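Justification of resources, computational component.

The compute hours requested in this renewal are based largely on the per-chain cost of generating structure records like the one below. Each record pairs the submitted sequence with a full structure-token output. That output is archived, and it is also reused by downstream analysis tasks.
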Amino acid sequence: MAIFLGVDTGGTYTDAVLLDETAQRIIAQAKSLTSRPDLAEGIGGAIDAVLAQSDTLVPADVAMVSLSTTLATNALVEGQGSRAALVMIGFDSTQRGRAGLSDAMGDDPLIEIAGGHQHSGAEACPLDETGLIAALDTLPAGISAVAVAAQFATRNPAHEQAARQLIREHSRLPVTCSHELSAGLNGPKRALTALLNARLIAMIDRLIGACERHLALRKIHAPLMVVRGDGALVSANLVRERPIETILSGPAASIAGASWLTGETDALVSDIGGTTTDVCLLRGGKPAIDPLGARVGDIRTMVEAVAMRTTGLGGDSEVHVQDGLLGNLHLGPRRVMPLALAAQKFPDLVHPALDAALTRDPASDDSWRFVIPLFSTVPDALPNREAALAKRLLAGPMRQSDLIETRIEVPALSRLVQRGHVLLSGPTPSDASHVLGGQSGWDTEAARQALTLLSRRRGGNGKRLAETPEDMATAIVNQVTAQTVTCLLEAGFTEDPRDWPLPADELARHPLMQTALDRGPGLIQLSARLGVPLIGLGASAHSYYGAVGDRLSCDVIVPEFAGVANAVGAVVGQVAMHADGQVTSPAPGEFIAHLPDGPMRFPEAALAVAALEQALRQQALERARLAGVDDPVITLERHDISADVEGQTMVIEVNLRACASGRPRIATS
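The structure output for this chain reads:
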């Protein structure tokens, strides 16, 4: 009997399941609160809890451990991550504005040096090694990794490889090369993807390290795998180098889990977590793959992943009161700690503050909201104002009004939140669900008090937002329904094969669509419905998705193990490692195979394609074995780009992909 242990670390909960691989059934499930900044407590709690449910299980019975995570996805949605430097080689300054690169840089340092290659792979300009070394000496403290992107590096990676060697020797920092993340030509987009990868290295390393340490403590020596964003499994060591590939890891695992748990082959899957809601179309039993690269919020990467629409809406989303007469609500995208949970974790701080705030009408928000440090020592290289706030928080969580001494410290607090050093608390949908009885387990009375305080806020018309905490909770849950429906419609219009005249987001919000969903009286009767079942996943899915299904007039399936679907999906997939390359023809009778070691010229297309195919097969095979597959199956995909020249069809580019796939090796007792 082979037992697989699946673990999913989300923004709020860490889930664990035990799956009997032979009988194809779940034998245990457990949850533990995700712990920050040390993830070991949450991971260990979930693993220990699920192991404790089996009296006969011994560590040697666990043949494989697989991990899925939403941490990278959540970090991108919330704009978090460690500081990283970006080295751009051979680009001009105008290219920085493309692909959202300038906005994404923030205050991370940018190094621009001469070098790069031409479209053919020939060197455009020698690499400025002296300039690179000089720039590395000026990097500020606190840089955790370096990203490198060179012009046309996917045609010839020599300058990226040389820069990586110099950076490692000079700084000892981890280095991400853009050509290893994507074979695409879009240089600025590759640079953005490499930068995001560099920012995530430290975070994912902490996650994997915490998992490995606890497994060793429990004497579980099975291989550790991680779910990639396309749903495939990969070894933990490879993920340490390429953490960007774990964006949408949790959602990809949830799709696999949804299919396994329900047996459905065609459905829209919606997974609501603490921070995000992830929506993907399941077609023919497989998730759709996004041909343009993984998109998270406003960020489009070049990472191959499931065609997932991720929005910053979850059970722990911050409740915003919008300006205007009615004081309408909006949820997210930032995650905060629900006040019901804050009161359970820090009762001596939260309860007196809520009680005091209720004696005032209105009470300022910062008098009953809290700042929770996610560090035990002051983080390195903080600017003066952020460092001053961090020092005050060393004693533990504080009321926001007690922490902030002057107005100029408010932006500093926002920067601490953005960098993931602190977490704010506030009213959330989870608090609303506690008030309405849809969820339990945390401090329901604190949730009632928080929503009472929120209900006393007044809109532009001078009226309170709600009369009772129950009314306030209902308004929040209704907003969850509204934003979830919009996200589902956007995904539906995007995946629908018809050629719509408007973008998906405009169609989802169009007055005619909203009128059709209202199904109200009128001279013209309109109706609209989702044409496939909706599978609702997540611990809180049962609280929200009934109303979503009513709004969309569709069948809703919330499976028995909906709350741990990600952990289930983590252990039912297989490894699939790709290697991509191109053959180009810059002139008649000249063919260039862009090999992993650099370009090589051939007089015939067939010779160039054969050389590239052999190189890619070997590269995919080596990657699969490193990823944990002993005997991978190799398949080859080919796509030719042709043009008509003087009445003859000529191949101008051949794109090849070798894929090595198989089940990962498992431990044997």
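The chain has a mean pLDDT of 89. The radius of gyration is 26 Å.
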